[in-house]
Amino acid sequence: MAPDFAAERREMVEVQLRRRGIRDERVLQAMSAIPREEFLPVGVRHRANADEPVDIGSNQTISQPYMTALMAEVLRLAGDETVLEIGSGSGYGAAVLGALARQVITVELIDELAEFARQNLARIGADRNVEVVCGDGSFGYPAAAPYAAISVAAGAPEVPHALFEQLSDPGRLVIPVGERVDQELRVFWKRGGRMESRVVTLCRFVPLRGGNGWH
C-alpha cells in the first residue's frame, strides 16, 4: 500500500512541530502544504515525514522537519523579503522559505544536487520565486545582495564574513556554528551596524564546504 503522505504530513506538523513549540502559523502552513516526499529520491520517499534527517545522496541530507521549521521561524519572515539560503540540498528548505518570502536565492556547491533541487522545485511549482545557483555558498551570493534574511543549512567553523556583509541592516542570519559533527544553531541580527546573537539549540549538520567552510 502506498503511503498516505498527506496524512503523514498533517501528523508531522502537529506532533513534530506544533507540540514542540513551533508557533509561527505561516511556517506551519507552509510545511503543511509542501509535499516533502517530492524532495527525496524515490527509494527513500517513505521516510519523507520521519522525525530525522534523510540521506539525499552526495553525502548530503534533507534536514529533520523540526529543524527546517525552527530555522524558518527564527528568521521572522513577513513575506516581502529577499532571502539567501546556503546549501540547497534537494530544494525543500528553499521551498519552505519561498512560501514565506518574496524571493529566495539558494546556493548549492554540488552540481548534481543543484539540478535535483531545480527539478523538485519546478515539479511542484515552487520555482516561481526561488532561484537555484550552483556555486560556493560560503562566499554568499553578492549579485543579489543585500538580503533581509540568510539561512545556512550546513555547519560552519565560524560565520563567513561575506554573509555578514551581504546581510541588510536590519537583518537576520541563522547558521549552525561549531565542530564538524556537533554545532550550536545560532541566530544573528544586524541592527545599526552592530551584530548580536543567541543560541537557539544544539544541532548536527553536514559540514559547510567551500573557501570559507571546512576544507
Strand content: 25-35%
Q: What's the total count of β strands?
A: 9
**Strand order within the widest sheet?**
5-4-3-6-7-8-9
General form = globular
Descriptive account of the structure:
By secondary structure, the chain is an alpha/beta fold. It has one domain: Rossmann fold, CATH 3.40.50.150. It is 27% helix and 28% strand. It has 6 helices and 9 strands. The chain has helices spanning 5-17, 25-33, 65-74, 92-98, 111-123, 161-166, and strands at 54-57, 60-62, 82-86, 103-108, 130-134, 147-152, 167-178, 183-191, 194-203. The strands form 2 sheets. It has a 7-stranded mixed beta sheet with strand order 5-4-3-6-7-8-9. A two-stranded antiparallel ribbon has the order 1-2. A hairpin with a 2-residue loop joins strand 8 (183-191) and strand 9. Helix 1 (5-17) packs across helix 3.
How are the SSEs ordered, and which strands pair?
Elements: H1 5-17, H2 25-33, E1 54-57, E2 60-62, H3 65-74, E3 82-86, H4 92-98, E4 103-108, H5 111-123, E5 130-134, E6 147-152, H6 161-166, E7 167-178, E8 183-191, E9 194-203
Parallel strand pairs: 3-4, 3-6, 4-5, 6-7
Antiparallel strand pairs: 1-2, 7-8, 8-9
